Amino acid sequence: MTNRLRAGLVGLGAMGRNHARVLGLLDGVDFVAATDPMAGGPLPNGVPVLRTLDELLALRLDYAVVACPTALHEEVGMALAAHGVCALIEKPLAHSVVAARRLADAFETADLVAGVGHIERFNPALQGLRSRLEAGELGEVFQVVTRRQGPFPHRIADVGVVKDLATHDIDLTGWVTGQDYASVSARTLSKSGRAHEDMVTVTGDLADGTLVSHLVNWLSPLKERFTAVTGERGCFVADTLTADLTYYANGAVATEWEAIAAFRGVSEGDMIRYATPKREPLLVEHERFRDAVAGKGATGIVSLREGLRTVEVAAAVLESARERASVRLPAARTVTSPPPRA
To answer: Structure pTM?
Structure first.
């Protein structure tokens, strides 16, 4: 790039430190400063750490990455929009539907590039899965099942597992299928002594009738990131911890056993594990956002309207758990964006 972009970072928690690392390596970008009132001293690469957002805004940024606690996303994002600064806001977009809508409206009114850091969209396994579904390799899609579980993260204090972890599964399910959520039914548990939930089970359906099921928790010693999409020709399984995508094909196995032959179900066929390039999802996410800010097109970034929809579905999940009833969702205002290419 001939014109280098000036980027800043708000928040230096666990995810913020990862953003700092990538910003320091990104071609065509000058990482000028970060801000976090709890951090002391410059970053390892010499980038200064400022005490306030106002100090950061004074540096004439082209864009900023927002990685502070979710409860602060609205305040920080609105300030960036008011100062004409583009923003990549970590997921979830905001702590509430109202706040998420205000952010989407503000950046649209200011005609600024803005996106949400739903990093799973940039995982090679899910990119491959979406591309193969779009190509019709599975035929009609019947069901999407996800499991996302692991130990309790002490870094999360302001939201529960639905807004922190389950928003990954909500976003990726709608994205890989190209379908919006129609209804959800959920139950939650809170076993870690905090005010927020730390386990949720969700069932529901998408606009085309596809069934969905999500199991998400912070209560398991087993760390798992599993997505299975079952359809008329077989099943795709994506493991986003290893970035592996595996296809289990339906088989047609002849049998002379009359009782089995009378059963008109599917049988096991070939299994294929695809070999694909495995670039770091966070780096790909940053490259796509950098290019969007530079005017090279917004293909692949997650729009604030999409981020808003994910917050709406998460709110419906919490409402369902609270009321112990299924919740129907109105149609989304926008459709999902094309898949990013690694």
So the answer is: 0.91
For 312-332, b where at least 16 C-beta lie within 10 A, e where not — what string? Answer: bbbbbbbebbeeeeebebeeb
CB distance 174 to 208 below 8 Å: no
46: left (phi over 0), alpha (psi -120 to 50) or beta: left
Torsion angles phi and psi, residue 139, rounded to 5: 75, -150
Closest C-alpha to 32, from 55, 3, 1, 2: 55
Yes or no: say if 168 and 190 are a contact pair by the CB < 8 Å rule. Answer: no
Structure tokens at 2: 């001939």
The 10 Å Cβ neighbour count of residue 107 is 23
Q: Is the pLDDT of residue 129 over 50?
A: yes
Write out pLDDT tens, residues 56-83. Answer: 999 999 999 999 999 999 999 999 999 9
